[in-house]
Amino acid sequence: MNAVSAPRVEAPVPRQSDLGRRRRWWEKPRRFLGRAWARVVFRLFQRHRYGRLIIETVAGTPLVVLPGVFNPKLFQTGEFLAETLSERWVPPGSTVLDMGTGSGVGAVFAARWARRVVAVDISPTAVRCARINVLLHGLEDRVEVRAGDLFEPVRGERFDVILFNPPYLRGRPRNDLERALWATDVIERFAAGLGDHLTDRGWALLLLSSVSDEAGFLRHFRDRGFFAEPIARRRRFGEVWTVYRIVRQAVGR
What we know:
Layout: H1 27-46, E1 54-58, E2 61-65, H2 77-84, E3 95-99, H3 105-110, E4 116-121, H4 124-136, E5 143-147, E6 159-164, E7 169-170, H5 176-179, E8 182-183, H6 186-194, E9 198-209, H7 214-222, E10 226-236, E11 239-248, H8 249-252
Parallel strand pairs: 3-4, 3-6, 4-5, 6-9, 7-8
Antiparallel strand pairs: 1-2, 9-11, 10-11
């Protein structure tokens, strides 16, 4: 159980200098429909997988998911980010922060190459779940799981790579599951703290969706001197997920 299966990497996508150019009048209605669709899919087909202990398989890797913890297979975003990881994006011997780790899927996959991984989540149940999966895969010598909000548990620390599959839908969450999908200011606070926690030539891997305000979210990083480069993309029904490499402009260009 110690080995993590090699992730399937999506084909690289062309660099886009300004995502805002692609915006059209129909984007707000499309985002509204995307949010409604996510709720319907969850309530009709996937709620039963959220309220009980279950073992999921991500790219051949088993993961325990406790009741109340965001399941990386439910909306498949956690699975997509994990499968995008490779030694290109997690350099061998690097240090990694897995922000909002949930079940620990990002930390488990990143530990394939990283020298040290710190996984963080605000949910105590998610912290317990991630620790179980770290033990399950025999990674306790490389992966540490901490409880807390965003960068608070790693104050004063810097990392070569920071992973984040954030809540990219606008709204106030009503429970732990919705906290993984809806938020009012998480991406803004993440962008504000990113520079203090990356090494000089480090980067963040950030997953965003076409049903969110991608251009608006990325603007927060540009305003703080970062450059966003799309590195992988996946389509699912009427939604497109993109993993961006967020890097300081002096490094990215």
